[in-house]
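Sharing a chain and its predicted structure for anyone who wants a worked example. Both blocks are below, sequence first, tokens second.
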Amino acid sequence: MVAMKGVIPYTTPFFMAGVRLVPAGILVLLVAAILKLPQPKTVVGWLWILAFALVDGAMFQGFLAQGIVKTGAGLGSVMIDSQPLAVALLSSLLFGEIIGLWGWLGLSIGVLGISLIGLPDRWIYSILAGNLPNINLDWLGLFDNGEWLMLLASVSMAVGTVMIPYISRHSDPIVATGWHMILGGIPLFGLSWWQESQQWQNITVEGWLALAYATIFGSAIAYGIFFYLASKGNLTSLSALTFLTPIFALLFGTIILSEVLSPIQSVGVVLTVISIYLINQRDQIAAKFSQHSKSAAQ
């Protein structure tokens, strides 16, 4: 997020989104070839990859790139990483994942935490003062400021995450990740060619390095690891780790881009860390309380 925010003044959103996807997808497929992972062989497998490319590739990166133009790196990351709640709901409905009391408590605290980080301070103060009419809930205004686009990116990522178990039934998750980035990036380059100009002429050496970082580390490595783990483990626990992303984005946004963290946002960071602990340790916490209750009853 910080790398993208730093380079966006010198390039265009759709071009940047395409650069994040297509070269990263090629890198992932090269690794897959070295590891001799099998390519998709069925029509159903390719259809799942195409759907994955549309939702998690083109839509997620497209909304993200457009949104980052109009919001800060920290705030944008917060809006995107509200998706663990949507993932938990979808995983519970589709896969029967047991979230439990402590899991839902952690998710609720996480949403509260990222809300304190991401919502304007004046909204928070208005709520605490009971002055709800002073809160501007102009969704068009949110859209213009980028937050609405980031929320759409968050929903796209959540849907993409819960698609992985279905995709893994028909193709290798790493191979599917590589192809979905290439196929999802092509329409973004098409939109860039149609709507944008001066996509790369003004990018500095530092800007190309930032794009390379976002492509290699933020897409190829991060996507490959995340979706591989999504095909193997608990989606709710894995997705909850993305609550950490806004904390790092705020930290590096403060250090590199001089974005200021307010006291309310600091409280949000603490709540976010607590939420991740509760979600990922929910089974152990529930077992300890159950054991304690049995001991007390005896």
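Comments welcome. The chain has one domain: 2-290.
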